Amino acid sequence: MNFLELIWHDHIRYFAISNVESSDDLKKYVEILPNHITIVPKIESPAAVDNIQDIVDALPSEKFLMLDHDDLFSSFIFKNKNINQLIYFLILLIISQNLSNYDFPIPKDAVYRINLAWVNSLDDFSKLLSAHSDHKIFIDLPIGRTKPPHNSYTFEELIPILENNANVKYLAISNVNSSDDLKIFSDLVPKHVELVPKIESPEGVANIENIVNSMNYSEKVIMLDHDDLFSALIKKGESPLKFKEYINLLQNFCFENNVTLLRTIGVVFSDMEKRETQYMN
């Protein structure tokens, strides 16, 4: 059986094309692939990013893209581009407060994330906001957190600080299992702050429609905590194989309902950090 005979099978739905830099790279595939197959261009270079509208317009039906982070980054380095140029091609990049410890340049258009579990006091929180006043801020508020460390101040104490810092755009709430877990926060947060529910349990996945429908924003964002979701299903006595099912359910819902799903795509490891809390400068 040759290649063309193989891809005519009904169960083959997607066909990814590497190194697509313009619509010309897609033409022959559009012509020969059967209609039931969705072409997925892989974006791996600055040229592809520059021509993204041309590429998308060439796709005949459903429009999917793949981004190869490593190859795109390598292309920038090879062409002597810098990280500040790379950032403009990313839709929503959220950078952790931990990078501040290593003189890592935070791109102007990046969103700066502050995890309050690692911020010991409200005074330290205010100083951190002041130091990054030029960035949009993403606050991660631990609710019901069992693992150390823990913050020692209440949500109500945060409200005046949020009101006085209009660049705080997102507030992530941990352990959201239903819309009821968001209600107290939506009643109190300033209008310029958008709540971002963190999905960390099978209950959160099962109730995702209820949670999202309670969010009165034009652009809705949720977060997925892979580790806590896996731990939660194990505690419930469910099979580890259910993990992928939950991930797929969440991804499909977000795709079908135009919801942005934030997932971790990398971490920083170092032997330089000696503190047990407050990982920030």
Give the helices and strands, then pairings.
Elements: H1 3-7, E1 14-17, H2 27-32, E2 38-43, H3 46-50, H4 52-57, E3 66-67, H5 69-78, H6 83-87, E4 94-96, E5 111-115, H7 122-131, E6 136-141, H8 155-163, E7 168-173, H9 180-186, E8 194-199, H10 202-206, H11 208-213, E9 221-224, H12 226-235, H13 242-256, E10 260-262
Structural write-up:
It is a single chain. Helices cover 35% and strands 16% of the residues. The protein is built from 13 helices and ten strands. The protein has helices spanning 3-7, 27-32, 46-50, 52-57, 69-78, 83-87, 122-131, 155-163, 180-186, 202-206, 208-213, 226-235, 242-256; strands spanning 14-17, 38-43, 66-67, 94-96, 111-115, 136-141, 168-173, 194-199, 221-224, 260-262.
